[in-house]
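seq as requested:
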Amino acid sequence: MLPIIASLIPLLGSVLEKVIPNTAEREKIKAEIALKLAENETELVKLFAAQDQGQIEINKEEAKSNSLFVSGWRPAIGWICAFGCAWAFILKPILDWGVILAGSLVKLPELQTGELMSLLLGLLGMGTLRTYEKFKGVAR
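struct tokens:
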């Protein structure tokens, strides 16, 4: 039973004690409410499972596509993140040093690394899931 539903049952019991003085009748109503909550929970779980399965099917179809706009967006985002990290942490500092040595006043562009790192860390998390799939032998 979901924690929120499980926490509702004792609350319902205390409310029912004030409204229904007969213990047998109160327990019967409490059991009926618990049954209805459990049925609703089952329906909710089925709904979420169906949504998850639908998303899995969409992901499968995207992965089959030969179009880079459909199946290539994840790798493209990965390469953008890789270039952004390379620029921010390797190339720009070295080029800044070279510009200073050359005596130039050119200011090289800076990237918003906070947003870039949020995107990259999200992708790495998804990469970890992919590694887990390969480890379990469910990857193609």
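The first helix runs from residue 3 to 19.
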